[in-house]
Amino acid sequence: MTSSLIETVTGQFPDSVSASHAFRGDQTLVLRPESVLEVARYLKEDPAMQMNLLVDVTAVDYSTFGKSPAPAFFASSGVTVRPSSQIPDKDPWPGPPASARFTVVYHFYSTHHKHRLRLVVPVEESEATLDSLTPLWAGADWLEREVWDMYGIQFSGHPNLKRILMYEEFEGHPLRKDYPVNKRQPLIGPVN
Amino acid sequence: MMLNIGPAHPAMHGIVRIVVDLDGEQIQDADVEIGYLHRGFEKMAEEVDYNGVIPYTDRLNYVSPLINNMGYCMAVEKLIGISVPERCHYIRVILSEISRIGDHLTCVGATAMELGAFTVFLYTIKAREFLWDLVEKVTGARMTVSYCRVGGVKADLPEDFAEPCAEVFKEVRKVLAESDGLLTRNRIFVDRMEGTGVISAETAISYGITGPFLRATGMEYDVRKDSPYSVYDKLPFDVPVGTTGDNMDRYLVRMEEMEQSMQIVEAALLDIPGGAVLVNPETGQPIPAAQMVDLAKMGEIESISGGCAVMGPTLEGSGRAQHASIAVDEKRVAMPAKEDTYGNIEGLMQQFKLVMLGHGLRPPEGEIYFPVEGANGELGFYVVSDGAGRAYRIRVRPPCFAIMSALKELLVGDMIADIIPTFGSVNMIGGELDR
After folding, report:
1. Looking at beta carbons, which residues of chain B come within 8 Å of A75?
2. Candidate from B369, B386, B402 with C-beta closest to A65
3. Domain extent listing, chain B
4. What tens digit of pLDDT does each residue of B183-229 get?
């Protein structure tokens, strides 16, 4: 059962799936951006999948991955923790996407089959647009708004793509790695 | 008519703005605006080391912080690939369930208060106070507990914890019986709760709703049962479900869940391995911790190397006698026992390497998602590590968020007075919703 989800979906969409892994048992598929809606529809509607719960949509900005600056003092190797030998690590994590700056990460769950699947979709900064999943899951509405708010990734077909946690006048996308953590902006109340 | 409710409205708890479009008293459209309590949890979590995130997780769902602590720590433990000792699992489960009761009591009490039953609110808050006394006995704090650690918990349970627990549960059961008597067959309460805020199982699932809210629609999804974590698969409990998915069902589900949580705690306290001890009689007399530091400074470590220290109240239960059963046996993850920190150079170095800037706990590269059953539903942590001493990305999947996104669906078609019970049953927690 462990690897079958990956195999099934890859068999169904051999051209869309570019990579897969099951690091720590989390089954993950890396998808090409243009096929998100198609694969998601299959995941929701196929009787063997029935992923009726869109658990989460989020994004990661990989632009500074592995480049965290060494601290000025005591720049040592630190303590790298190797996993315990009782937990087999057959499935190493393949690493961040090769070229794309962002990945959009979807988590699905099936309440019928009780299985989970993660979709990782690399997105280039220059064409940061994906198909919206709002036609399939009503919950995608707010989740995609949050991804837009925090990362500036657009979702085409979204009915109401505006900021959700920040206010309309806020400039920039705060969870991008190039947004300074202590940057301040004037607080302006909602206009509408 | 357009009516603006909130952001701070006296009849609703939580900071949220709802703009409703009314036809007479009937709601035609509703626009829910959130974000008033956004504090940038996810950004801040990228700036501090792994154990440094724990105090921030307290402030997500601040009514049941121990569940957030547990979820976050288990997520990082999954990323590292370690598992904590069994006693530690039991301690976490016991405290999670105590928190869950407190959370549900708050929700039921606040809903009742907003419908005019102020007495019930006072009763349930009284019961919550008893539960928080229990939490305080264990963690030293009432709300912002920061009790779990990556690879363990801060300290062991106090001696004979089962006794005060049994007493408190007696009180809580009394309060639940009283609230049940005051509410469940109360004409006013039932009239306002029944048939309002109705949502079907399909719609709820489509919005990503989980927890008691989903279970009230008849869908039996509970992370504790469906993807069991920690020791939940060893503990007996039932998952109550409703039938119609209205406010009344959500109230009834929460009432039953509190009873189930108490049964989990009672079973866990019977099954928990290894009794709590404060001093180890075999390894000599306990020494006050401060005196131990003085001795160590003078190099007299032979006399103290095997001894147990008497800890001050803040560190009580984190000594050597308890350490093996509450923290993972992995020096690169868990803090040493306090006697070792004070008493020998290896312990001091272990502590130093874990807390100093630029050192610290370093999980391998990878990404994981770990869900736990929060008081409002599936609380998930998605953690990405690039092998450095701080997380590359921490994403919280807040259970409230999905429910709030469905609030429009719940309100449209109902009367304006129905906003109050519906919003009450959502149990919106701003800290978790807006992060």
Report:
1. 358
2. B386
3. 43-274+364-434, 281-355
4. 888 888 888 888 888 888 888 888 988 888 888 888 888 888 888 88
